[in-house]
What does this fold into?
Amino acid sequence: MRYFFDLVFQNAISGLRAEASRGYLGVLWWVIEPVMYMGIFYIVFAHIFHRSDEKFIMFLLTGLIVWKWFQATINTGSNSLIANAGLMNQVYLPKIVFPLTIIAINTFKFLIVLILFLTFFQFTSISPSMAWAFLPVLILTQLLLIAAVASLFAAIMPFFPDLRVILDNILMMLFFLSGIFFDITKFPMSIQGYLWLNPMATLITMYREILLNGIPPDWLQLFLIMLFSFSILLLAVWLFNHFDRIYPKIIR
Amino acid sequence: MSQNLIDNNDTKILSLDHVGLYYSRRLRFMKSTRYWPLRDVSFDLHAGETLGVIGKNGVGKSTLLRIIAGIIAPNTGKMMVHRPGLRISLISLGAGFVPYLSGRENAILSGMLLGASKKEILSRLDDISAFSELDGFFDQPVNTYSTGMRARLGFSVAYYIDPDVILLDEVLGVGDEVFRNKSTAAMKEQIKSEKTVVLVSHSLPLIREICDRLVWIEDGKTQAQGKVPEVLEAYLMSIASVTKKRD
It folds into this structure.
């Protein structure tokens, strides 16, 4: 077990180091890239849609940061077994190492951006509240959700390579439906019911309630997301165990 | 290796029992064919011996090593490991090398991927560095290495990982002449000592020199196994008859 976590850790560190030494700017990319990403949305919304009020910008950025962590990890994580075809044919490794490595790398990058974002609040009229103390719980819940979804897709992708395209489009759809650009609570109740089925919509709203309004999360909902994520993760772990020594035969 | 030791069941550390394996080839939607490189392979591996596997190209020798290494599972038959916790490593040079990382970092990562704990590798890092003869390059990114240098690093890591069972797939003889002699000598030394080795090779002189026993695989089946001269003779006879038929 210790070896297992050491391995994920070493793998993740190596991945991060390799990424940092690739370009001239190195480590700075972990900051520049998300700033560029958010900058695009800022320009589009502030200057094209004329929504440059502080409250909306912070509302938008919160959603974007949280979403990006989810989306980037699912995207790379779901492909992680296929991407490591060569390696898994050379040495035996528990296959869940591959998505977990991706999750560790992306979580590290997310935390950097989050810390920067929280410091950024200094320059706004929104002041930190006691509710910010609940942030770690929310982050852990999202981490569990990400781990579950990324692992599940990583486990089934080798059998259905065509799923890649479908997944890309599902992520695109969720990007628009998770309430990153709009407030779901302002929709008619009949539509809201469907939108809340997406755990990311619930989580994004919770992040905003904590950060912008100082309102603690709804524990029951949080618990339900954890339960949902945990069952998916169990399914993924079962798949990984069941096909552990079959994957290298399929992906070559 | 004396004959009585081979017959002794206590030295058995691993056995293959009627092992068969197929690969699926996807044709179109929901349609695939099966290709069986191995159909019925059985043999035992004893502690301390060097077992050679021979057969023509494409008879599934590499697949067999991957089954023994636990990378893939057989579809029929069984592979049994008689000693729990046995560390079996398929020596693949440069397993998991990351281009932008230094030789040192890659040695740590590659060593861990081959099954060693981080502590073990860190304690052997100086030996690995010295053996690889990379000198200043050890702390340079591996994408600045030549093919030979990569192979040297890979071999040095694999050599110092020191598994219980070494699986070799034609990897003796990497690097330049000097390093090749050195690495071959180092491997042979390990092989001749109490190490358990399974070796796939087409080099008959090498097989004659270092193998204690041979297994000959043809058409996915064990055709013969036993003492080196006898199996080798049968194998060469069959090749000769095939060559004659072609003429």
